[in-house]
Design a protein that fits this description.
This protein starts with a helix and ends with a helix. The model has no long low-confidence stretch (mean pLDDT 87). The longest helix is centred in the N-terminal third of the chain and has 30 residues. It has two domains: 207 residues, no CATH class; 242 residues, no CATH class. It is built from 21 helices and no strands.
Amino acid sequence: MTKLSKIPLPAKASFAFLIMSIIEKGLVFITSPIYTRLLTQSEFGQVSVFLSWLNLIGVIAMFCLSTGMFNNGMLDYEHDRDGFSFSMLVLSNIVTALCFVIILSVWPYVKLILDIDLPLLYLMFLIFFLQPAFNFWMARQRFEYKYKLLSAVVLSYAFLSPLTAIICIYLFPNHKIYGRLFGGESILLCVYLAFYLYTGAKAKWKINTSYWKVAILFNLPLIPHYLSGYVLNNSNRIIIANLVNNTAAAKYSVAYTIALAVTMVWTAINGSLIPYTYEKCKNNDFKSISNITSPILISYAAMCVVLILLAPEMLRIMAPASYYESVYIIPPIVGGIFFTSMYFVFANVVYYYKKPKYVMFASVTAASLNIALNWFFIPRFGYFVAGYTTLFCYLTQAVFDYYAMKKVVGKSIYNMRLLTALGMVMVCISLVSNFLYHSDVLRYGLIAVVFLLAIIFRHKVFETIKRVKK
């Protein structure tokens, strides 16, 4: 306890947020096998499509004010953080109301695209209206290193939300989709409402419209970038549901959920890598960035390879046998997710030099390419091809962000021979690993080799971690 008390507050908060994130996302893994067995494949697919639309439309309907803009406001308006938070909440609500009126006015046409009922649209926009209050409070807690209450709130709803959804599915067997969505979101809506009232009360319900102009000018150019990121992550399920059916969307969704397991690791890695990168960029010490990044990416690639090799076992845990064919989508999706780590190591440098327009160009191009390729290839080759278009588009985004970084800095600061070789290895593994699923002995042998190499080079890994944490 004495040692723990001496740990700096930012370090404590970072560790608490990491554990909180792992538990929260881990619960998604725990509950997914339950949902895949309680819901039919078509029902699970409809739920996945709704959640995808929720993420996509939410980028515009909530205006993404809780991201970079809010953190800037915490610095610029330190004397009036309560007033700034409530003013951003009202601005977000105005944008939400405008979006709702527009969609409702053309609902017969929009319904054909969204493929959801009107009650689900009401649920969606109720979330958009209330959720920003919690997002702002959470961002402020992180900014001020207040992790205790935040951790308690997040872990509470992370447990209660799926539990309520499962109970509602049992209580309303003829309306399982509504039970899953309304049941699960009801807990979250109660939390959002509580923080909505709290935010308003702290600001005494006073709005400062001068904050709005700054927020709009800052965030409006970034909306295409935010939207493109969500398109890359969510559009495949929507397109598959429209071009094939909800059953195929459900199978793809399960495969994608398994592949996302490695993103929890990268989120933690990048959280420590960003301040290290910024510090070294400030001192023009690009060599240190390269020396740290290379072993990190090698280690992350090894984790991705292990997940690919264990995909059959993961899928048997996550879903019943009727989903098993989706195992062949997992390798290219994991390969694509690996290239997001390369995107981040390049984009982190670009963000330091405050040139986000280059990152936006890469994101928009990759997202547009992903939609075009899926609409062309899925009707001809089936929904399996969506995994390979994802791999190609994430690779394309990483390449564009590399050139963006090179343009901003004026040179290549990483060991690109090593990173290129690493990328080629991941592409090859993503393309050929499907053939390994027919030989358990070969798969387990390769997994053993990866773990043996990890043991041999463990000191190098630990030393890298220590250097990043300093």
